[in-house]
Write a structure and sequence with these properties.
The structure holds three protein chains of three kinds.
Chain A (H helix, E strand, L loop, with lengths): L3 E7 L2 E7 L5 H8 L18 E4 L2 E4 L12 E3 L13 H8 L9 H14 L5 H8 L10 H17 L2
Parallel strand pairs in A: 1-5
Antiparallel strand pairs in A: 1-2, 3-4, 3-5
Chain B lengths: L18 H4 L16 E7 L5 E7 L1 H5 L3 E6 H4 L9 H5 L2 H6 L1 E4 L11 E2 L5 E7 L2 H10 L1 E6 L6 H5 L14 E9 L2 H7 L2 E13 L7 E7 L4 E6 L4 H12 L6 E4 L13 H13 L3 E4 L2 H7 L2 E13 L5 E13 L7 H9 L9 E9 L13 H19 L3 H8 L8 E6 L5 E4 L4 H12 L1 H13 L3 E13 L5 E7 L5 E5 L8 H13 L6 E5 L16 H28 L6 E4 L2 E4 L6 E3 H8 L16 E6 L5 E14 L4 E12 L6 H21 L29 E6 L16 H4 L1 H12 L9 E2 L3 H14 L4 H6 L1
Helix pairs in contact in B: 9-10, 12-13, 13-14, 13-22, 17-18, 18-19, 20-22
Chain C lengths: L6 E3 L4 H11 L3 E4 L5 H6 L7 E4 L9 E4 L2 E5 L4 H5 L4 H4 L1 H7 L5 H6 L2 H7 L5 H8 L3 E6 L2 E6 H4 E3 L2 E2 L6 E8 L5 E9 L6 E11 L5 E9 L6 E2 L1 H7 L6 H10 L14 H24 L7
Helix pairs in contact in C: 10-11, 11-12
The chains are: A alpha+beta, B alpha+beta, C alpha+beta.
Chain lengths: 161, 798, 295
């Protein structure tokens, strides 16, 4: 099928690209827009590596077609912190608490945590573990990620006026 | 922790250098690399486990929109060779002289030709304008097969009349090893008690979150091949490509960019197919494995069956061990006896068992080839032995902790020869450690005695809580070598190049810590490059828990030698004795008169060849030292794990309550990283214990081809791991390091299985197979209850 | 794992959507949240030549709780229903069931109608629809019709929908009064498809006996099923441990589970009784506690 023009806002900027209707949103972000921070892990919605925010809510970008994102506001890992600025508190917390090893699953975790902390600024361990359970990490055993979420919550609360 | 003044950087919980790019999504994984004009490949894979390819018509695929080319086995025949076999290099004369070992040749072709041997084996490669079009092309290929009889497992492969998969093997046994010490038959004959049990460790897979990717570009003007690849062994890939494609080694550059895990090692058809396609088409070609391909073909692991016998006395002391095990190697035995030797060398673990006889066979079947994956033969061995030890404890009415106390090697016997050579042909010696203290530390950490008391109370309430113990040793830091180049620039910045290729272990940080210490400079002043064959001539790679040991040592020694050279050049410039000089943050100064100093820039200029060079006599130009560290043999790390679990006897579900580890990995370069390795390893081991199994049906069709069927543990299944340490330094390398990358994954299957059996102690179930899913456990429970005459609830509550 | 080519239509109204389906018939597939369909496309197990994307059709995403009725548009996102004010207090089983569906990122996108129309036998919504006597609103070229959930769910991945029909919404009955409900399931990991799952709703009369029992199970037959045998055991009796045990034992009669790599049919049958007992214990406690019982 013929490619279509697609206009989306990603991290506050307007992007134009073209893709066949069958192209998934994650492939569009990576291959058409060059935003390779979002990773492809399983392409069937289980591993969570491709998690991004659409209109402020997490979605699996492998389970959406790029055409479906037309007109929506997307946020990816590249949009968490300005390229030359300090890390976002969640990024800071993941690094500080050693919540990543290979870093491949990390962007999906970061976006998941971003939504979690907006829903619940002071989540319990049980809530954290439950909310992270849709993202698979093979390296860390999760506990430092849990720690990082707690620390990110702390940093976020401190930063709030 | 940020960089603050410290005596040494080694030993600190330093935040990782890698993180800055990775948390911003600015890592560069192979699939992130963009070359203009790149074509995309997809691989047609065999739908049959064993079949003749009777027809392969690619013409319709070439008609498909966007398809540029298709390659099959026929296109490669006579042009691309097979992968170099591990077999030839594996068995040193020293080893062969001591051990009964035989490895037969069975080289892996990059693509099937005329016959397929496992579901998923590459049959054709379609190259197209994008991956979508390439997959359309796969569907257009007309392939016909004549199915042949499958060989579903090792036991059936050994039966009379089983189809012989490789004529050259003269059967289905691809490798065999037998190691023994002492009079085993006599020990069994004289022993008051013996036990014989079969233990099965299912096939599983490493499942790195990044799937493999290969990107290749042929520079026609320069006759150069550049390859970016998801591999922990780029130098090995380069050597293989050189031989397979007939190119000079130095015309090939292989780069392993950031890697999203690995947990194993391997050579894969696509490693050669994609470079071949790029050369044939004169265009960059990229292939990125999808998860379905990964589950199908990215080397499985484990798949061992042990028939283990123990002879023991009234006190539960093991007198002798006899083990015969089969490794289902899949269609090709790619790693000689790497895994089976590991199994044989590690099955006695921390226990003093000097009379033993171990025989292992690697058998080929019509399944995906297996490879060494995190633990590599050790989890299987430890599962068998630590389960058996609990059976001994139950038989003798001993607490599982007590039976271990009676069998552990006493600390005073260290270093302890183990009566056999290691895989490198050197005498196998446990070099340092205190296993009994390790056990006690672990028991104390989980509060074992209190847990036993609570267990009784809980059981009275109907809660089934159990505790299980397992321990391991791990020969780590395997050779033959790893190298490092350390350079100092004119701004006082250090640069390290190594052939070891990390895939998430934080080696950039730990190597920077090692290097920084030699110069007394902060690690921020050290950069580290790895995984690029153009940067260093030789490299081995990251596997076998070896990189901190081998590359860490190489970096330390190279940096130390560079420091000496820097001081010597400074001495020449300052006309001072080196002994009177010291390194400072911006150069070298006199210890007594600080104004007498030269900057790194001046030292650099003096070491640069040419008329301004001012080198002391006998020194070569350049502020660069290269060093290859050759470990004398492996150094033995160890660990003890204690798990507590709760079993839901109505559903067979197992919940991990606590998980305690105590490990000895020698000097910890960065304890934060060590603990992360252990936590991640334990999570992997929990997967092996309870969730992860690669399943095939009777036709060797894969049943676990998605992440809905192959279950990786998530944050709700893995508890926080309580990590404790011992630190017995190794004297086999300058820093006293032992490896820590795999140990975490070794003991969980045994510890958890032991804990489950313990929780259900009144029912006397036996778990001799992992993974232990709820349905399998419920079957065991219900069988036991039926056997107990229906008084199950009372029985469990008693 | 890339979807095969298809034509993509994004109707802006129900009429347009129905017309698109009518035009393409069997060749077309409607896409709501896509959380099941896109993986099927990626594995190339589904090969529609036309995708009719419903996400641009307005007015189908409503979710409200009014009187005895939970009224949901087919495009209501799982996560929005999960967070509907008052729902957990009013009928905890609905929220408990939704919480078991995949993960938040899946529920943010996945829809009620999509789940029901996909008719996976382990889908939580199929149990809710049966237990809460859902009426399903369908619309096609010849107009609208309403079918009861038990007629809507035909078999595994099969519903009463004609190829040119769409599910537009459903109404579930969430009784007030002395009721208690509970949904519980067993899945290998949090968020996985259930090996078996049970939704139970009990209404007690003034004397504390069960006036009405509604029990639905997933993962244990071709489609979600009610358990008349278990319901019969309960009605007319106070939900004592003995009565609950009797109901739990009876449920096996109404099941016809399959075996797969995760669990045998026998396992599923066995744990269904266990789950039912646990669900009934909670539901009964909640019913006795008043209209609520949710923690």
């Amino acid at each position: 099928m013929a490619p279509r023009e697609i206009v989306v806002r990603v991290n506050g900027e307007e992007y134009r690209g073209s893709a066949e209707p069958r192209v998934t949103l994650v492939d569009f972000l990576r291959d058409e827009l060059g935003l390779t921070g979002t990773h492809v892990g399983c392409e069937h919605g289980v591993c969570g590596a491709c998690t991004i925010l659409m209109d402020g809510r997490t979605v699996r970008s492998c389970l959406m077609l790029a055409v479906q994102a037309e007109g929506h506001e997307l946020r990816t890992v590249e949009g968490l912190a300005p390229a030359d600025g300090p890390l976002h508190p969640i990024q800071e917390a993941f690094s500080e608490k050693h919540g990543l090893q290979c870093g491949f699953c990390t962007p999906g975790f970061l976006m998941t945590v971003e939504e979690l902390l907006r829903d619940d600024p002071d989540p319990s361990e049980e809530t954290i573990r439950s909310r992270l359970s849709g993202n698979i990490c093979r390296c860390t055993g999760y506990q430092n990620i849990v720690e990082a979420v707690r620390y990110a919550a702390e940093l976020t609360r401190e930063a709030a006026p | 922790m940020s960089a603050t003044a410290a005596d040494t950087w080694v030993g600190q919980r330093l935040r990782r250098k890698e993180d800055a790019r990775l948390v911003r999504g600015a890592g560069r994984f192979t699939a992130d690399i963009r070359l203009p004009g790149t074509l995309h490949a997809a691989v047609l894979r065999s739908p049959f486990a064993h079949a003749e390819i009777t027809r392969l018509d690619v013409a319709p695929a070439l008609e498909a929109e966007g398809v540029v080319a298709v390659f099959t086995g026929a296109d490669l025949a006579g042009r691309v060779g097979t992968f170099i076999e591990a077999a030839g290099k594996e068995i040193t004369p020293a080893l062969r002289a001591q051990v009964d070992v035989e490895v037969k040749s069975c080289p892996l072709p990059p693509i099937a030709h005329e016959r397929v041997l496992w579901v998923g084996q590459p049959v054709a490669v379609v190259v197209a304008r994008d991956r979508y079009a390439a997959e359309d092309g796969l569907e257009a290929i007309e392939a016909e097969y004549e199915p042949l009889d499958v060989v579903p497992d090792a036991e059936s492969a050994l039966r009379d009349g089983a189809p012989v998969l490789h004529e050259g093997l003269g059967g289905n046994v691809a490798a065999r090893l037998a190691i023994s010490s002492g009079d085993v038959d006599a020990a069994f004959a004289a022993a008051p008690f013996t036990l014989r049990e079969r233990f099965t460790f299912a096939r599983s897979a490493g499942n790195a979150m990044e799937t493999r990717s290969v990107q290749a570009a042929w520079d026609e003007g320069r006759d150069e091949l550049a390859v970016w690849i998801t591999s922990p062994r780029p130098h090995l890939i380069r050597t293989n490509l050189s031989e397979m494609l007939g190119l000079p080694l130095e015309r090939i550059r292989v780069v392993a960019p950031d890697m999203g895990g690995s947990f194993g090692t391997g050579l894969f058809g696509e490693d050669a197919l994609i470079p071949f396609a790029a050369m044939a088409l004169r265009r960059p070609v990229r292939w990125t494995e999808d998860r379905q391909e990964a589950l199908l073909g990215t080397r499985h692991c484990r798949d061992q069956v042990h028939d283990l016998e123990l002879a023991y006395d009234h006190d539960g002391r093991i007198l002798a061990l006899r083990d015969r095990f089969l490794v289902d190697a899949g269609a090709y035995n790619l790693y000689a006896v790497t895994v089976s030797y590991n199994t044989a060398a590690h099955i006695r673990g921390q226990y003093a068992i000097d009379t033993f006889s171990i025989e292992g066979l690697n058998v080929v079947t019509t399944k995906t080839p297996v490879a060494p994956v995190r633990g590599a033969g050790r989890p299987e061995a430890v599962f068998a032995l630590d389960r058996a030890l609990d059976l001994v404890a139950a038989e003798r009415g001993l607490d599982p902790a007590e039976v271990r106390r009676r069998n552990l090697i006493p600390a005073e016997e260290m270093p302890r020869p183990m009566g056999m050579p290691y895989r490198d042909g050197q005498e196998m010696v446990y070099d340092s450690g205190d296993y009994p203290a390790q056990l006690e530390q672990a028991l104390e950490a989980i509060d074992y005695d209190e847990l036993r008391a609570e267990q009784a109370r809980w059981r009275a309430e109907g809660r089934l809580v159990g505790v299980g113990i397992s321990s391991y040793v791990e020969g780590s830091g395997f050779g033959p070598y790893e190298g490092a180049i350390v350079r100092l620039d004119q701004r006082g910045h250090l640069h390290v190049v190594t052939g070891a290729k990390p895939h998430g272990q934080g080696l950039e940080t730990t190597l920077a810590q090692v290097c920084a210490d030699e110069f007394g400079l902060p690690p921020e002043r050290v950069s580290v490059t790895s995984g690029d064959t153009s940067q260093i001539q030789f490299g081995v790679g990251t596997f076998a828990s070896r990189s901190a040991v081998t590359a860490g040592s190489a970096v330390g020694i190279a940096a130390g030698r560079l420091r000496e050279k820097v001081l010597a050049v400074a001495g020449e410039l300052l006309e001072a004795s080196v002994d009177d000089l010291e390194l400072v943050t911006d150069g070298v100064a006199s210890r007594d008169v600080h104004e007498r100093a030269v900057s790194f820039g001046e030292i650099h200029a003096a070491a640069t060849p040419g008329p301004r060079s001012r080198l002391p006599a006998g020194l070569e130009p350049g502020l660069e030292v290269q060093y290859y560290f050759v470990p004398p043999t492996v150094t033995f790390a160890s660990g003890t794990h204690v798990a507590s679990v709760e079993v839901d006897a109505e559903t067979g579900f197992v919940k991990l309550l606590r998980y305690v580890t105590v490990d000895d990995c020698g000097r910890m370069l960065n304890p934060m990283i060590v603990e992360g390795q252990i936590q991640g390893g334990v999570a992997h081991g929990i997967g092996s214990a309870l969730f992860e199994g690669v399943l095939y049906d009777e036709d060797c069709q894969l049943l676990t081809g998605s992440y809905m069927d192959y279950l990786l543990p998530t944050s709700t299944e893995v508890p926080s791991i309580e990590v404790g340490h011992q630190e017995f330094l190794s004297d086999l390398n300058p820093f006293g390091i032992k490896g820590c990358g795999e140990g975490g994954a070794v003991s969980p299957p045994a510890a958890i299985a032991n804990a489950v059996v313990d929780a259900l102690k009144p029912l006397r179930i036996n778990v001799n197979r992992v993974p232990l899913g709820p349905a399998a456990l419920l079957d065991l429970i219900r069988e036991a209850q039926a056997g107990a005459g229906g008084n199950e609830r009372e029985e469990l509550a008693s | 794992m890339k979807p095969p080519p298809f034509e993509y239509l994004a109707p802006r109204s129900l009429d347009e959507a129905v017309a698109a389906l009518a035009e393409h018939g069997d060749e077309a597939k409607a896409m709501a949240g896509g959380q099941s369909l896109v993986p099927l496309l990626a594995f190339r197990l589904a090969r529609p030549s036309v995708i009719v994307d419903l996400n641009g059709v307005g007015g189908l995403d409503g979710a409200r709780l009014e009187g005895d009725t939970l009224e949901l548009g087919a495009l209501a996102r799982q996560r929005d229903v999960e967070r509907l004010p008052g729902l957990r207090q009013r009928c905890p089983m609905v929220v408990e069931a939704i919480e078991q569906i995949g993960h938040v990122a899946i529920r943010n996108r996945g829809t009620v109608g999509g789940s029901l129309a996909h008719a996976d036998p382990a889908a939580e919504w199929t149990a809710l629809a049966l237990a809460l006597d859902a009426e399903c609103d369908l619309v096609g070229p010849s107009g609208a019709r309403t079918v009861a959930a038990r007629e809507f769910l035909v078999s595994t991945f099969m519903t009463a929908l004609e190829p040119d029909e769409l599910l537009t919404g459903l109404r579930l009955r969430v009784p007030n009064g002395r009721t208690g409900s509970c949904f519980t399931e067993l899945a290998r990991r949090h968020g996985d498809f259930a090996l078996a799952g049970v939704g139970a709703l009990l209404t007690l009369d003034e004397g504390g006996a069960v006036a009405e029992a509604r029990i639905a199970l997933i993962g244990v037959a071709e489609t979600a099923v009610r358990s008349p045998s278990a319901e019969r055991c309960l009605v007319g009796h106070p939900p004592t441990a003995e009565v609950v045990a009797e109901a739990a034992a009876a449920v096996a009669d109404d099941l016809d589970p399959n075996s797969d790599i995760h669990a045998s049919a026998d396992y599923r049958r066995h744990v269904s009784g266990v789950l039912l007992r646990r669900a009934l214990e909670t539901a009964a406690a909640r019913a006795r506690g008043g209209t609520d019982g949710a923690a």
